[in-house]
């Protein structure tokens, strides 16, 4: 048998059985970033265009994508999410945008994939809105930074 | 007026008008990577589990996500894609997986977002299938590496 | 802090946390109407075309849309609906069609949005099927008429 | 045969054949409104919560819904939209919010349903974000106000 | 290289490149059937329940599924369909229901998969509505019966 | 009143009320098959193309479709699935491919439709990948073979 839980004993991909797992409160937080030219950050922050529209569009896209996670990731279980928030902060040091998502559920599996999907889609949306003025952008640092609930217990990466 | 094309003259987000743009053949290529522990890469490559199942599931997820791009990215135009391919290669030097997507269309807008969405979703799918054995994974380096067709002409980043 | 629950303390849109709310039986009923020319109503009711096809198509569309509510409304929580019914009645007094939807769930949040989305989509479907013969149609009166379950208690508008 | 184009000669619902229709530039504009208590409008406009978040979330939801029209309305043809914009304006005279959507395509059918779906979903999203503070809201006046392109020629309702 | 067009020269699944193929008018017709007990057929045809609701719901489901084909079948190209019709006829000889779908497009690839998906989903919907009274139902005979347009020319199976 | 549970007392289609039903562990298994020419089976099994790519793509498509069941089948309740597996085996005796799906949930309704939708979509995906080399394929034998949990008790067809 494989040590990879998403493969059965013949190496076939399947959605793992969680019917014996208890529904508990679970939280996951993920982070990521879009790096861009300083001038791009300035266009969003200091230009005539209010930063709100770019950032709030990407935040909304991230929230909506969290709800589509099981549609996108083949072996993810569909879950009734109880909270999703996505926060995007311009950051001169990158330069770029720091993205953070927090997702909560009460269910038999964790919500790391929902948090990662929210961060990833928020970054893609920023990229889409800024690509006409910047060809050098890159999405990176997408990772889980903390997780609570479930059998494996609480866990926090260096956030 | 904003220099950001996705905002109108009041800074409101909108889907830009491409009705005056000619439908031309367009190609975009994007890349990204999932870094993980060497042991994780070994589990996929050398273990009892055939690497095929993990990698092919993620490639399929990337292809399907490319077709959902306009559903996920608020201001993306829906497009009839004429080709999508996603290639995932294990890489000992990372260590991790190098992901590449190529998307083609004949239409009035480019397909960078479709290629980026394919790469991003393939990385998320790898993450999902490997997260039970590795908490240190990170998705990074998601960027457009080349683009042909359209008014702005051909363009290639350092691939 | 805003008194608007869908905004956090910085005015940022988010999906509110319902993880502390108890799952209770909830029902919501919504109504709305499509007004049209009398001749349009006659074409549906008295013409050769059986009224069944127009009305039943719109009822089915309303039921299916209720299940898509969390996909459409950015900050709605995904919910496992336990009942959806949509009823469309031709009405000579409008003249037009009166639409009613009832939705039930056992969950931590109410189902008003699901009922409203069902009514709204049923009206849009009627509009689509009749627009070739009537340019004067209008959708109006979409509102919640009653709601039971949840912390805020039972409530009924003038139905 | 029915005079209703969406029914075949046996009264059966079907998606009408547009394969013989020429692809032409088409524009449709729709309007609608959400009426609410004056205090609700004040909470959005004058309160601590920036109006941007409520209004921009609803505008984005409307744009995204326009792209989902063929998924929601059973007999609508899928179309490659070339532009979507949604504009929401607070209006003290209603009191409430006036919503307008404009959609463009180059294709064999019109985009009235896409414009109406955008308006309808934007209204539903406003409703969702404000329902905690106002039980009296109502969505109404959803209609097509102008249409250009296609065999039936240009047409404008009293906007 | 594989003779299977959906695999690249390394046996990897991909969406084949159709960017060099001409957009032509294409039609595909598919058939299938749901067999059931005679008593089930009677319940739909002769009972108090009007047959319309069962059959028209399944026809609508088939039409809507045709539009979702590229979402469901991983390597299918998204297409702008120009016509979809689904016809369900009760058949005492089976006993059961005979299902037929016709799909048209003007595009670079055929629409067999759309017609097959429509038939398949219409059969599944009949199954869903009748499963409470019949455990012996079976879906079978799903196949393409004719196809016109495209490089491979016209073709008709024994319908 | 109709004996068909999906119709109300006026013969109108509706999603039946399951709010009074207890959430219990439920399992459903469905089977089906794609028959093809022997040469087609050989191309998948013995040719240069590794069989893995065709079969694993269809298995993944089946798993993903199970999660979309309530989107496709109008009166199906949305459910949080706890397990989905799809197994495809080449079979020289057919000749063709035998497809089996098992779905589990803890909920108020059964998962037969999810298992049937998984089998059906896996067959459609095989058809799509093989249609370029075989015009004689047919999907058949799609049925529920066993079911446990729920009021109607355990049940097994001849598998």
From TrEMBL, chains A, B, C, D, E, F:
Quick one: which residues bind substrate?
A: 75-77, 113-114
Write one Gene Ontology MF term: cyclic pyranopterin monophosphate synthase activity
Involved pathway(s): Cofactor biosynthesis; molybdopterin biosynthesis
| Group of enzyme by EC | lyase
Q: Which domain of life is it from?
A: Bacteria
Molybdopterin cofactor biosynthesis C (MoaC) domain location is: 15-150
Q: What is its EC number?
A: 4.6.1.17
Assembly and oligomerization: Homohexamer; trimer of dimers.
State the HAMAP family in the record: MoaC_B (MF_01224_B)
Functionally, this protein is described as follows:
Catalyzes the conversion of (8S)-3',8-cyclo-7,8-dihydroguanosine 5'-triphosphate to cyclic pyranopterin monophosphate (cPMP).
Q: Which family does it belong to?
A: Belongs to the MoaC family.
The protein's name is Cyclic pyranopterin monophosphate synthase
What organism, scientifically named, is this protein from? Qipengyuania soli
